[in-house]
Amino acid sequence: ALPTLAIIGRPNVGKSTLVNRIIGKRLAVVEDRPGVTRDRVNYRAEWAGRDFMLLDTGGWEKNVTGIDLSVAQAAEAAIELSDAIILVVDATVGATSTDEQVVRLLRKSGKPVVLAANKVDGPQGELEAAALWNLGLGEPYAISALHGRGTGDLLDAALAIL
Ligand code: GDP
Ligand code: MG
User: Fold this and answer.
1) What is the pLDDT of residues 56-78, one digit of tens each?
2) Pocket lining for ligand 1, CB < 6 angstroms
């Protein structure tokens, strides 16, 4: 089986935009795997000559148990299913308590993580991205999932730990 890279993070931070960028612009979609829930969609992807599965986690906000709890539960499930993780944080918002909750889950899991500081659409956002060093996950990779800025470096880092 191919290794699985999961994209996790709070609702609205840009996870699906990042997935679309990876599979739609620079990587080929080979299959939409059947039998997965709407909350977790697996795509076959390729980067730098390596094949892997890309796991998009969505619909977390639909849970009735409250956003923070549903995020934690969905993150736990995604972490369990993955070999490595990209944690996406909205750099324009900064780290929230929900982000910190997910970071604690990631630490407990011991799974390798790369931190994506998303919505850095231009150089003026770099300072906000650097503030995310505080999450303790190492270098925040400043990206714009929307425009593609920095996503190549992020993927190189993610594949290095996958
Ligand atoms: P998800 O809930 O984490 O999957 O987030 P989405 O991918 O659905 O994105 C949520 C919103 O953020 C959408 O309006 C996106 O267009 C926007 N968005 C995502 N990435 C970026 C980015 O890099 N820059 C900006 N400015 N907006 C973004
Ligand atoms: Mg989404």
Assistant:
1) 876 444 444 555 556 667 778 88
2) 9, 11-17, 58, 118-119, 121, 144-146
Question: Which amino acids are annotated as binding site for GTP, given as ranges?
Answer: 9-16, 56-60, 118-121
Beta strands in the chain (DSSP E): 4-8, 40-47, 50-57, 84-90, 113-118, 140-142
User: 87 C-alpha vs ligand 1 centroid, how far in Å?
Assistant: 14
pLDDT at 17: 87
State the closest ligand 1 atom to the C-alpha of 88, by its place in the atom list counted from 1: 3
Q: How far apart are CA 58 and CA 75, in angstroms?
A: 10
How many helices, marked H, and strands, marked E, lie in the chain? 5, 6
Q: Domains of the chain by range and CATH?
A: 4-161 (3.40.50.300)
Quick check: ipTM above 0.95? yes
Q: How many CB atoms lie under 10 A from the CB of residue 7?
A: 26
In this structure, which ligand is nearest to the CA of 121?
A: 1
